[in-house]
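Sample intake sheet
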Amino acid sequence: MNVQSRISLLVLLLFGALAAGAETRPRAREIGLAPGILSPGPLNAITDVAGVRVGHATVVRGEAVRTGVTAVIPHGGNLFREKVPGAVFVGNGFGKLMGSTQIDELGEIESPILLTNTLNVGRVADAAIDYMLALPGNESVRSINIVVGETNDGGLNDIRGRHVAAEDVLRAIGEAKEGAVAEGSVGAGTGTMAFGFKGGIGTSSRRLTEKQGGYTVGVLVQSNFGGVLTIAGAPIGRELDRARGDGSIMIVIATDAPVDARNLKRMGARAMMGLARTGAAGTNGSGDYAIAFSTVRNAPKLVANDEMSPLFLATIEATEEAIYNSLFKATSVTSSIGKAEALPIPEVVRILREHGVVKPLTVNR
């Protein structure tokens, strides 16, 4: 059986599981969708960048609570003592990204990057400060820059109840790990929506060739934004008659390339190009943020400006695919506040086939 046949058979099995009511949903590549020209890393996740860890705490209670927190940790050490180069790029600033001004000023990140809902930013930050101050070696610390990003999940969650507690934050940080990343309706993506469908957490990566430097770029998104969904040029939202107005997205970019804060900001700008490929509207009420960091500290030699283009392309492609994965992996969520239906994968595949984006399913016999 050739590679295309294996992919096709996997899709058939996945569709069978979906029809049987199973929770398993495919990622974009599992239906034959491969955005861009660069190859992903082994996990096709932000954790393909060595040392990067991701953890979630999903908070679902009763009929109205559908929220959570997600932690992205650049390395397993004490981040305050071993800061990483970092930058923030703002596509549209209708949002509450705590810690961004110090990152802009100093070009460093010194805490886990935490994602949650809009009204829980303060409480998440408070718990993260407790966590950082308690780390061995931080006994004399009197100032720390906590990084907390958000999107508004009030369409599905009792956001005014501010239900993410300190123990949830500590759980997300404590359970953060390398390896495969849970996607969809988990953590900070539990109550989010995008393009009129259920959004959530998604991730992807790209690995450059040795000639291009051999570096890896990984992206994780919290998708909760508006627009009309386009996948690899196919007008999915238009044909499914579904769209959404305002909303926001948090994009976290990691790389093992020795890049300084200035070029990390330039990578963040390219993430907005990946966002645009998916049909995002960039409305007045959209908070579109990219937080980028490098895991390489005190590099003796940085990637030169003239060598940045492959990293830019990697960021664009990984952002685009991470958004698709956030939609493909998300499951439908219902609460007393509202309902968001998962992207209907069989219909999406049909449209993608009609537009020549993915090949028709064939199985060798």
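Comment: The longest strand covers residues 84-93. Residues 33-343 form a domain with the L-amino peptidase D-ALA esterase/amidase fold (CATH 3.60.70.12).
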